[in-house]
Sequence to fold (461 residues):
Amino acid sequence: MREINTSVIAQTVEQLYIQACYHIGEDVKNLLDKARKTEESPVGKWILQQLLDNIDASHREQLPLCQDTGMAVVFIELGQDVHITGGSLTEAVNEGVRRGCRKGYLRKSVLSPLKRENTGDNTPAVLHLELTEGNRVKITVSPKGFGSENMSRLAMLKPADGIEGIKNFVLDTVVRAGANPCPPIIVGIGIGGTMEKAAFLAKKALLREAGRPNPDPDTAGLEREILHNINATGIGPQGMGGRNTALAVHIDTFPTHLAGLPVAVNIQCHAARHAQKVI
Amino acid sequence: MIKKITSPASEEQLLSLNAGDIVQLTGILLTGRDAAHKRMVEYLDHGIPLPFDLNNQGIYYTGPCPARPGRIIGSCGPTTGSRMDSYTPRLLNLGLKIMIGKGQRSPEVIQAMIRNKAVYLAAAGGAGALIARCIKKAKVLAFEDLGPEAVYRLEVENLPLIVAIDSRGNNLHELGPARYKI
Fold:
């Protein structure tokens, strides 16, 4: 059995958290650039140019892309042939977040929900742990800002609502969100499972390379249709009108119960940040 | 065409702004977001004077990242304005003239803006690094215990903004999407 020390986990989380906050993926950058070229609204075009200039400024000035460096959402796929040594895995993840926040000059945004007392180091992370085959550990850090997280919704639709019901719910969610989640957005949709499974699927769908379709042709067709409908709303960049409201729609599905049709919509702003490493 | 404005602004300047104008703002801004707004209104409820004057001032809804050593400020983009809606009319009645944030505002806020001849300007959400470049000075003015939510006094130069809601209540978040809806 392969042994991995918690210090390696903490070190990796620290590095990935900083990397995600400072470097946007080429996938998102390319979609923003394409949006800028196709945008018809002059104000929309100006905003998209600002967002591209911001990526440049972030590199040059060593500043995080966005001041909302989020709550750290950490996905770990842990190979079942790995033995974690040297203490608690959860604490190692939190230590990585703590150090990443300090060394990366990231914002401390995490607080107790009722008393609203800041924890002082942006911990704890939200940790999603999955057991997989093999002896590898895949760590993904996805800092989630709350301008977009706040606009996310979940519905337990009826089977009779069907695909039309899903399309209507997603569109209604995006329209209600309007300017708040910093469009152009990426929309993660989880369909099926149970309540929490649908929410998890929606969150995980956001980790996909931006714009890459679901491998299932029917699901990919639904992604295209929903993207088209969202961009027909005219909400546009920053909700000021235009053709580019969403850059991509990602759907993931899971079998569900015959009595239900859970649908979760997780909204992601254009700063779709995540960084990944396999140990 | 880009309009240049200052903060504090003259009434004439504020009245000349129209929803959809692109502007560059130079001057003094205070920062304040959720917790600072809550506290300001608690002070007002208890008859305690605010530790700063809001008359003719501008508030930027932001919670910056910490500055690296030797730097003025960290990333510093706008946060969602609607979370301040329930507090805002009272601050407008104290003479607040400029609000900077992102996203839609409530009808109550827009009515109070019209009454008080105030404007709501939008910064590009998520452009925190670009905006930090325009900040020439920053110091904590009040509520330091609130950490990233403390009230800062900022000196800004040519801060790029769009007039989202002007002093007559014209609202780009309504007008813009209506124009491009298919």
Remarks:
- The mean pLDDT of chain A is 96.
